Amino acid sequence: MTRINVVNNDNANQEQADLFAAISSQMGMVPNFLKVFANSPAALRGFLGLHGIASEGSLDGKTKERIALALAEKNACQYCVSAHTAIGRKAGLEGSEIEASRAGTSQDAKAAVAVKFASSLSEHKGEVTTAELLEVRNAGYSDSDIVEIITHVGMNLLTNILAKASRVEIDFPKVELNQAA
C-alpha cells in the first residue's frame, strides 16, 4: 500500500499535468514513482533535470542500467529492481547480465569495474579509496565518466529511497528481490 499520495491525472493540478504530459511524451507512460515525486512539482522537475543530464553523458545505456540494478538490489528496492529489469532489457541486457548486475558485477569486464565502483560509493557513502579510483581509471574510465558514475549512484539512491519510503505500487513486471529486505 502506498504511504505517500500518488498524483494521477484525476487529481493533478495544471503544473503536475504539464509535467506528466512531458514525461508521457518521452516514455509513453508516467511511472508510479514519478507520480509520487509529483507531490512536489519542484522535486519532480529537479529529478527530471538530473535524469536528463545523466542521460546525456558518455556512459552507455547498458552500464547505466547495470548500476541501477546493482543499487536497487543492494538497497532492497523491489520497485527499482522491477523497473530497471524492464528498462535494462530494452537497453539490451540479457537475463544472465541482469542477474550479474543485481549481484554487483557484470559479464563485461569494463562494466564490472563501474558496477563495483558504484556499489562501493553507495556502501561507503562516497568514501572510496584511491585504489578504487585507480581501478576505474585503469579500466578506461575518464574523470568525466567517474563523475557520471557518481551522478548515477546519487540518482538511483534517490529513487530507491523514494520508492521504499512511499511503498509505491510496482507498475512494471514484478521482479522478486534476491536478498531479504
TrEMBL record:
Protein name: Peroxidase
Classification via Gene3D superfamilies: AhpD-like (1.20.1290.10)
Keyword vocabulary terms for this entry: Oxidoreductase, Peroxidase
GO molecular function annotations of the record: peroxiredoxin activity
Domain Carboxymuconolactone decarboxylase-like: start-end pairs: 42-115
InterPro entries referenced in this protein's UniProt entry, alphabetically: AhpD-like (IPR029032), AhpD_core (IPR004675), CMD-like (IPR003779), Uncharacterised_peroxidase-rel (IPR010195)
The organism of origin for this protein: SAR86 cluster bacterium
